Design the sequence.
């Protein structure tokens, strides 16, 4: 799926761990405006703010004025986010989820264990009225590679990343961001199929181009691997 050309955007990032921190670095380098929040408070993000020019905020304020929000926190911490954390977003806004379920870290999540895709579970908690467009992306790439692995179009070493979502427009927007970072995009289908890129699947952590990522998605087993079950 070719991404649309992405002009400078206002992006909110909820979570400032390895992925959230490096997406903050990457997006600000590309000229996007970023507000970033973590669970410990804006004052703990002073160094990241000084490095990137991003604005540290409370989680309640990350979505305020944003055109797109990235949720990048441990799966088990999703219910701990402030109630209505995404309410400031207008209907139809794009939310990117980078989350992965690791039962050893997150505790047992019965719905996910029963087969609910991880991003569907997160959307059900944070967007119960289904007014936003969710895209699963960036969940299977090493955080450092967001800054170091990107290559220009046509480069023989250019890698591809899978994304899944129900809105074609939302996926085009996220594809544009992925391509800005130096990666091709493989459309992994709707959110209901996003289990194909969850931990333990062939595509999770794969470093390959479009053909390799496409083949890895097709080879995904429908049952969650035993090592990723509680």
Sequence:
């Amino acid at each position: 799926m070719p991404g649309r050309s992405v002009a400078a955007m206002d992006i909110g990032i909820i979570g400032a761990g390895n992925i959230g921190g490096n997406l903050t670095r990457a997006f600000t380098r590309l000229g996007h405006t970023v507000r970033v929040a973590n669970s410990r408070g804006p004052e703990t993000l002073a160094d990241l703010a000084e490095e990137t020019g991003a604005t540290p905020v409370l989680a309640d304020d990350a979505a305020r004025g944003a055109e797109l929000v990235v949720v990048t926190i441990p799966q088990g911490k999703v219910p701990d986010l402030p109630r209505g954390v995404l309410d400031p977003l207008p209907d139809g806004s794009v939310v990117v989820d980078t989350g992965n379920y690791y039962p050893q870290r997150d505790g047992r999540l019965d719905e996910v264990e029963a087969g609910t895709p991880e991003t569907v579970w997160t959307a059900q908690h944070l967007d119960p009225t289904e007014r936003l467009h969710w895209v699963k992306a960036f969940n299977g790439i090493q955080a450092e590679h967001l800054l170091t692995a990107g290559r220009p179009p046509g480069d023989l070493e250019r890698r591809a990343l899978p994304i899944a979502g129900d809105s074609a427009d939302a996926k085009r927007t996220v594809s544009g961001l992925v391509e800005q970072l130096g990666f091709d995009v493989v459309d992994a289908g709707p959110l209901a199929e996003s289990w194909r890129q969850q931990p333990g699947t062939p595509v999770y952590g794969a470093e390959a181009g479009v053909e390799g990522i496409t083949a890895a998605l097709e080879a995904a087993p429908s049952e969650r691997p035993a090592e990723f079950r509680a």
